[in-house]
Write a structure and sequence with these properties.
- The complex is a heterodimer.
- By secondary structure, chain A is mainly α.
- Chain A has helices spanning 2-30, 35-39, 49-58, 62-93, 97-108, 115-127, 135-142, 145-155, 160-168, 173-184, 186-202, 205-210, 219-228, 234-254, 256-264.
- Chain A has one domain: MetI-like (MetI-like fold, Orthogonal Bundle), CATH 1.10.3720.
- Chain A contains 15 helices and no strands.
- In chain A, helix 3 (49-58) crosses helix 14 (234-254), helix 4 packs across helix 13 and helix 13 runs antiparallel to helix 14.
- Chain A is globular.
- By secondary structure, chain B is an all-alpha fold.
- Chain B has a single domain (37-288), classed as MetI-like fold.
- Chain B has helices spanning 2-36, 52-58, 61-92, 100-108, 115-125, 131-138, 152-180, 184-192, 197-225, 229-234, 246-256, 261-288; strands spanning 39-40, 47-48.
- The chains are: A mainly alpha, B mainly alpha.
Chain lengths: 268, 289
Amino acid sequence: MRKLGYLLRHTLLIIISFVSIFPFLWMIISITNDSKDITMGKLSFGHALIENIQKAFTMADLGKSFMNSLELAVIITITSIVICSLAGYAFVVFPSKGKEILFMVLIASMMVPFAARIIPMFRMFSQLKLLNSYLCIILPAIGAPFLIFFFKQNTHAFPFETIQAARVDGCKEYQIFFRIFMPMMKSTYAAAAIFSFMASWNNYMWPLIALQSNDKFTLPLTVANLASGFNPDYGVIMVGIIVSTLPTILVFFLLQKQFVEGILGSVK
Amino acid sequence: MFKKNRIVFVAWSMVLLASAFVLIFSYIPMIQAFFLSLQTGKGANLSFNGLANYKRMIGDDTFWTTIGNTLFYSVVQIPIMLLLSLILAVTLNDPRLKGRGIYRTCIFLPCVTSLVSYSILFKNIFAVDGFVNNLLIKINIIDAPIAFVLEAGWAKVVIIIALIWRYTGYYMIFYLSALQNIEGSIYEAARLDGCNAIQSFTKVTVPLLKPIVFLTSVMALNSTLQLFDEVVNLTGGGPGNSTRTISEYIYDLSFNFVPSYGYAAAVSYAVFFIVAIITIIQKGVLKER
């Protein structure tokens, strides 16, 4: 009976694990095959790797899209975690009735479906003549209610005596935040940075609306474009898929602990 | 006194920027969308027309189809996915289990894929002459390939499979962390009271997990009701409107068809109310249990 349970559990886990990683194996195999073999479901390595990569970087300009995505993700991650952590910190260190209400208002905005905001946002940026610029991607991403919430939760764990001691030593409030809080909360910042980076890296709907010229396109837009043509070249698409998955996989394996923490942040 | 005022000023200055961004890019658009929803007209020529948009919505078949599709995805996908992730979490929570770290990493890995990328990958794997069809033919389950992505019923199934693949590991992590917070002594007590494994699962684990079940179901519902990336890249909403979601319809109304912003805004408010109502019902149901 015990043996059977043991066997059952491992069978379940092996099947689910295999299904989970199969699409990854599929993309690694497929990137070496040409489009025709990929659509036919060929399950062995081929010889088209170099050709696929060459085509992807000349025909589709994947490198440019990659740099665009990276630039946006880095700018958004840095600005949003600095601004949101400052707010989350202040909500805990300087509590007041007014701030409590403000916090509730900010959090409530998480319930607003994105679709209910896109049309006015589109009109706002079109009046400001900012469509097709990166400002219209960056600005709406900076104030992230989840990040404010995340930093507020984590600030509770920050030792208040440290702040008191710093004040006695004559530190200004902003100095305490930048010179003491930030370096001490490295792991929280790493988790938040991963969350923010992923959100920006994956962002699709708003850039699809706001960005119009190919040289501004981010990776999801370029990859989606490649796949939506009449006769898509799956070899090139696989390069795009791998290029857009690689950075997040890398971050995941390097910072697995913070990665999971970032995801769990809302539960603690 | 002077010093205290200074501190109050500094404190508010710290929350100012973040609040301003949320206000400008979340609340103002939301309020504007409401006023837009009361106006009709094409493109930029809009005039107030009361509840005309909401009336139009009631007679709009596409609206009801997309609402139906979106609810269908939620009702089928979320329970299957959450149950699966709960089962996996309970299985993996056993510290004596060999290789649990590897299993956990494998099952979580789909979460790192970009939404557009994995949708295209699934479209490719489920293509008419693609991998899944070849496999099913080879092991004699089917004789002729199925047009998974091109047939209304199958296309929905593929989207649901894709969603379950991408998010099961994500929710499993929530359950795992909740399970780790349950003290072993509670199970010990249950065992001494004569509970078997299944009883201790239903009588101890499930009740203690209630808050996290609520949280995860709200999160999952919120994301499935706003489903966009996957459907656009897997089926494009087709065939016909059979897989189109409400978010995709709002997008089409504003940016693909002749733009009718007012009507699109009204539809987006409908989504907003559906999300709110379902959340309230969910909270009630879980409280009662």
